[in-house]
Amino acid sequence: MSTKLEDSHEVVSATATESSFDKKIISSKYADVAVEFMQAHDSEVPIVSPEQDKKLSRKVFWRVLGLTFLINMIMYMDKATLSYSSISGFWEATGLDQNMYNNVNTVFYVGFIVGQVPGTYLIQKYPLSKMMFLITFFWSIIIFLHCAAYNYAGVIVLRFFLGFFESVAIPILTTTNGMFLSQHFREATQPIFYASCMASPIPIGFISYGVIYAKASIGDYRVLNIIIGGLTLILSAIVYFLYPDNPLEAKFLSTEEKVWVIRKVQGTSHATIEQKHFKKEHAVEAFKDYISWLICGFFLLQQLANNLPYQQTLLYEEMGGLSNLNSTLVTVAGAGFAVLWSLAACLFMVIFPGSTCLTIIWTTVPSLVGSIVAVSLPLSNAIGELAAICMASQSFGVGWICAFGLAATTAGSSYTKRLVRNGMVMASYSIANIISPQLWQGRDAPKYIPAWIVQIVLSFTIAPALIGLVWFILKKRNNERLRDINEKNQVGVVRDDEGNQIEVNIAALDLTDLQDKTFIYPL
């Protein structure tokens, strides 16, 4: 066998004279962090039994997905405090009006996009648990500081830094889920993960209802921010003690369970568990790959509608006849619909595996229909308007979180490409959300027809069409790869520091989807 080996993280092909396939070889320090652990324990651990697998799946579901669900829900409660504060005296205390409120929401996403570059780099270099602890801790401090805000400039600064610290939270949470969950289980539970942010108006809605009803002397919005800030501070303590860095470091798993988790993740999703070396060529490929740009285009267009959930309370006021208390309850009811919609999407993906792209498309339909109805009905039809706004604002997020998962799972096993593409997606998301609040100009009240038209055409029609195009391209690639795939070219080689070569699952080589022709895209 003739082999060209270099001390580089570039993939090297070793051509086998006795066969027609190329075996991929890579230095151990650029391979999956799990390689050494699996080399030491894989042969000692038996195949997982069906009973053990069910028990392990339940444990991972509650300890990993349960924790990321809780973090995501409280993160959205933090972000939504400004919307609920708007009906609790915050505007009067800080001198905000409709256009200033729009600007404040825009500045949040300026902070969000500024945080992408350092954040994406840091989450590859440092333990995820420490990153998430710092993020949640600073969230709580910033929410507490909202109590002291007294002018427009102060609110601008607070929202910028809240966006800055939130910028890489979703990539961290979805990366963690990807380390522990099998491909199908992760795809099927993405809507449940999304339900966490759609469920956030339920607890914060009832908290806000109680705060408004109590009429505290220090100001309703201050009480609201103290409560939400306190919950976030408690969350940061939970994260500090319980958040796992990766399966290897997960204290709640035994050695056997760690091996089973790694086998399942690498075997089903063809993904690297974790890789701490930034690979420049993988980053460049993420930018050159037109699939990245199609998915970014989806986020850019779809998220132009993302100010709608924060705008709906003000829309209720424009309609008249709804008190602050009742508008809060309507928002809670809308969140209940969103949770049910998320569960319906989850059930669909369980019954029909490999349906992520289709789910993104069909879950957008209520938003399209609701938007058309909302812009068509007169404000005097209060019940119809309420139903249309709730339908439009509470359902399109299912497609958002599924598309975020699609961006990561179609990058191959490469940890760097996944993170860079996630950064590109979040930058697109940020740009859209910088623009989104500006669509709701006070001069267009009370119907805001221009904003609705943008959402109908760009967010709920063209954006899902882009995902249809992604499906078509990746389906074609899969058909070509399935014709040529065999067991031999699913094996890779890791070369340790002493020059020894170890055969591993090719997923452990941390290759991109374009480097690894055995990678089958999840659709």
TrEMBL record:
It comes from the Eukaryota. It is a multi-pass membrane protein. The keyword Transcription regulation does not apply. The chain crosses the membrane at residues 60-77, 131-152, 158-180, 192-212, 224-243, 328-352, 359-380, 386-407, 419-440, 452-474. The keyword Chloroplast does not apply. It is found in: Membrane. Pfam families: MFS_1. Keywords: Membrane, Transmembrane, Transmembrane helix, Transport. This is High affinity cysteine transporter. It comes from [Candida] anglica.
